[in-house]
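Data availability excerpt. The first of two example chains:
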Amino acid sequence: MSTPDESLFEEAFAEFAHAAELMVDPVDSAVIHGRVRRRRTTKGALAAALAALIVAVPAVWWLQESNGQEVDPRPAEETTDETSTAETSPAEGGTGTGAVPQGQESDVEDPALPTFGDLVGAEIDLPSFGSVYDSSCPTAPARPSDGTPDPESGQWFPDVDAGPVRLLKVVHTTLEDGGPVRAVALFGCTPSEQTIRQAVVVAGDGDGGWEVTEEIAVGDSGFALWDIAPAATAGVLLLVPEQEPTGRYLEIELDYEVFRYRTREELADVTADAYLWGVTDLAVSVEKTANGDGTWTAAVTVANDGGHESQAIQLAMCASESLGTDGPETVPECNGEIQGVAVLEPLVPGDSTTMEWTLTPEPFDDWNGDEQAGGLYFSVWMRPVAYSVDGFVFDPDGENDYDDTSIIVDDMPTS
């Protein structure tokens, strides 16, 4: 009789435990999708106990739900603390003392893995974004700024004055079967209207700094790298739209491909196997209703019209100077800039959320010249909060991420 392979038993047991956890709490998308950045209390003991009871149940159930083992991220409890707690906050990353971080002393064989906050503002040599961009996207060295706007504070665009090279995301994943966990960072630079992104592996250099240990991909006009995510087993996934979404309103419908990178392997196209939560068609609409007293109600609906669960959604609004608004969030005056007003919870496919504002126009004679000619506008924008989770975040249809309603002279009561 042959000797059992203990590693196979351990791997199967881990899959059974994960399947049991999903069955116990199937609606907990922090477990299924790892979509949020907060630290989650694990249910490992409960899952393991249940796994022992259902050891005869095949783990195929989980793989069918994800439509492919290769692109299903690890359970949330297996995600490193760095990627679940320090995704966008520079203050949480580094030591702040100038001391060499633990694990980065000289002659350390397994160097420290950086968090997002560790790399913001740190000096690091990066691959070139392209020789024609070397002057506008300096990389030898680069001092990356935080390239992720803070949606909770209403930021819609990153601080372009903070630095030309921006850090967008850091994920921790293994890059080869049985290999150690590595940190993969996504950087971006916008020398023109199009943002160029590159993905690299970063580790401690042993002297308190950071260095690139592997070059994964640099986007260009034919390879518009957009986002990265950990693969289920080994590797990192790259989301590549067929065309870079440019402009303010993203009024363009985009196809996309997903590639898997593993150390010492060619990029593999895994688009057909991808179960892509966070990659879904989101839409916003505004419906105006007269209240009969000179005011109007604007109902703002954000819907998930796609086939996968979304990530968090940022909502932005503005109103004309002569249009008063009263609702769940303060609406700023339209001044040529987009300002966020709220961050909405993720939506499952087919679900939507609606909020209402009361619109009160000033008397027509008090409208300015542009308002009298074109009316009073109540405008709404919507977009998923990108780079905020380990998984992908992408809306492939930008034609329905903006809507507005207006009040014109014909809507005003006659004296």
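And the second chain:
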Amino acid sequence: MKFTPQLDQQGNYFWLVELRCYQRLLMAEGNTLKEAIENSMKLVEEMGIQAARRKFPAL
């Protein structure tokens, strides 16, 4: 996981979270570090749901 503060075009800070999961780069952002981490965990959750659906199509 990599946490990086960024500036947008208006000069406001936001956080960018990068993480690798099964050789994929997932990126999430948020206005606060907490929000960015929560958004990245939602991405991981969604990736797990998609993997389960591929393995068990009846779900």
